[in-house]
Amino acid sequence: VAYCTHPVLSGAAIERITNSELDELVVTNTIPLRADAVACSKIRQISAAELLAETIRRISNEDSVSSLFME
């Protein structure tokens, strides 16, 4: 599994992903995916909305943002 926060999948990227040994590429929805990327069974898109909303809320309230990324 590989992860990509801002999936600019240009050129032959989809073909390379499809033909790779990669099981899955998890990407965020920060930019629209091309139709061939959406159709690619190895690509799973997740929403960044909740994380972005919580980040904005914390900044607005002067709370810690770094704690969002600690386990």
CATH fold category name: Rossmann fold
**Binned strand content:** 15-25%
* CATH class category: Alpha Beta
Overall geometry comes to: elongated
Mean pLDDT across the residues is 95
Cα distance spanning the termini:
20 Å
Largest sheet: 3 strands, parallel
Structural class of the secondary elements? alpha/beta
Number of helices: 3
Cα gyration radius (Å): 15 Å
- Reading the helices and strands in chain order gives EHEHEH
Number of domains: 1
Describe the fold and architecture.
Helix content is 34%, strand content 15%. The chain has 71 residues and is α/β, with parallel strands linked by helices. The protein has one domain (2-69): Rossmann fold. Helix 1 (13-19) links the parallel strand 1 (2-4) and strand 2 (25-28). The radius of gyration is 15 Å and the shape is elongated.
What would you say about this model in short?
The chain is 34% helix and 15% strand. The protein is of the alpha/beta class and 71 residues long.
Give the secondary structure arrangement, pairings included.
Elements (H helix, E strand, L loop, with lengths): L1 E3 L8 H7 L5 E4 L6 H5 L3 E4 L2 H12 L11
Parallel strand pairs: 1-2, 2-3
List its traits.
single chain; 71 residues; alpha/beta; Rossmann fold; 3-stranded parallel β-sheet; 3 helices; 34% helix
